[in-house]
Amino acid sequence: MINVLPRGMCTGRTMAYTLMDAYAAAGTIRADISPTDMGAALEGIAVTSAMPEHRERAERLLDLTLDGLRARS
């Protein structure tokens, strides 16, 4: 496998943790949700909405997931 990331670049997992930590610290997203939680939620959406005729369901579930990620004031 060829490494296509320039030296010093982080992996997707590291990037997800870095971004989510920064957004949580800024109060943009909830601090009690991990990238692992988000990955599981997105996988669930993909599995239950994989067929083209389920696009509306996928969009609704994604909206619900992203709404749940937002920090409450």
Please tell me about this protein's structure:
It is built from three helices and no strands. It has about 70 residues and is an all-alpha fold. The model has no long low-confidence stretch (mean pLDDT about 85).
Class based on secondary structure composition and strand pairing = mainly alpha
State the end-to-end CA separation. 45 Å
Write down the overall geometry: flat
Mean pLDDT: 85
**Uncertain spans:** none
Largest sheet: none
Strand content: under 5%
Rg over C-alpha atoms, rounded to the nearest angstrom: 15 Å
Percentage of residues in helical conformation = 55-70%
Defining key terms:
3 helices; mainly alpha; flat; 73 residues
Q: How are the SSEs placed, and which strands pair?
A:
Blueprint: H1 12-25, H2 35-48, H3 55-69
Helix pairs in contact: 2-3
